[in-house]
Specification:
The chain has 16 helices and two strands. With 302 residues, it is mostly helical. The chain has a two-stranded antiparallel sheet. The termini are far apart.
């Protein structure tokens, strides 16, 4: 036992380190282990802080997630005759000049030099039509048509898709006048333009309605329909009404269709008999009885 004690005493006797410096290496491992262990404890104690999200949640604005449509009426768009793509009529050119003056000149300037008053703060600046280089989509009729149809993202050039093919083609010919070396319109250009944008075809543009407006209209119509339906239910339980009704379901359907047609209600009841659910008794009744029945119906404001 004494020998064992002496052995351990000798092992932990730091004075022996000076006699045999190689022992310092063994003690250094102990110090290294304790340092790592201490760092681990600190890390575990602070782990919640390391993974805490300090960035505030920024809820996206639904209005910026998609672009809603505007309220527009549907219309028919006439196609352009092939020969007018190269040689527009004076009427087309006049219309093109009107569009340029009211829509384009504020940015591109009256002479197309990109010096319009509204374009001074734009970056990149508006296109100078007299310059040959730097056109984003190119200067051919199809390329300029593309710019007018789709706009140029990241710039002040918005899309003018609402202009008809005839108007966009006329506008291109107006723009050509501001330069001296625009490319000539070839048969290949005409074919490419028509293949890409179907400018010679007549088509219908459907009406559009903003989502918010549509929802309000649906809610309003459903609210009105609910009130009408509730009044019809009350009406069908009225003894004076039930006296002239043989099929409540058919009669209720007739009333829903006849909503707002009070002045012509008697004629509708007679002409649609017996498909409207009224009995032959109503048909045989005199004018006073018919009038009283109609007034009773209208009193429920269906």
């Amino acid at each position: 036992m004494k020998k064992l004690f002496d052995f351990f005493y000798d092992e932990i006797n730091f004075k022996e380190v000076f006699k045999d410096p190689k022992r310092l290496i063994g003690y250094s491992f102990i110090v290294f282990f304790l340092a790592i262990f201490g760092i681990g404890l600190v890390y575990l104690n602070q782990i919640d802080q390391f993974y805490r999200n300090e960035t505030p949640y920024d809820e996206p604005d639904p209005a910026k997630l998609f672009k809603d449509v505007e309220l527009t009426l549907g219309r028919k768009v006439e196609g352009v005759k092939v020969e007018l793509i190269k040689q527009p009529t004076q009427e087309m050119l006049k219309r093109g000049e009107e569009i340029y003056k009211t829509t384009c000149s504020t940015c591109h300037g009256e002479k197309g030099q990109g010096d319009g008053i509204a374009g001074k703060g734009l970056n990149p600046p508006p296109r100078n039509f007299a310059e040959k280089d730097g056109w984003k989509n190119g200067r051919s009729i199809t390329q300029v048509y593309k710019t007018l149809q789709e706009g140029i993202p990241g710039s002040g050039m918005v899309a003018y898709e609402y202009l008809s093919p005839s108007e966009k083609i006329a506008l291109y010919h107006v723009i050509k006048k501001f330069g001296t070396d625009f490319p000539e319109i070839t048969d290949k250009d005409v074919a490419e333009l028509d293949a890409t944008y179907k400018v010679t075809q007549t088509y219908d543009i459907p009406p559009t309605i903003p989502i918010g407006t549509a929802v309000q209209k649906i809610v309003s119509e459903n609210d009105t329909l609910s009130k009408v339906s509730a009044n019809i239910v009350k009406l069908l339980n009225d003894p004076e009404i039930k006296n002239y009704v043989t099929d409540p379901k058919l009669f209720a359907g007739f009333l829903l269709k006849a909503t707002g047609k009070g002045s012509d209600l008697e004629n509708l009841l007679v002409s649609n008999y017996p498909l409207n659910g009224v009995s032959a008794k109503f048909i045989r009744s005199n004018s006073v009885e018919k009038k009283r029945f109609i007034e009773k119906l209208l009193s429920y404001k269906f």
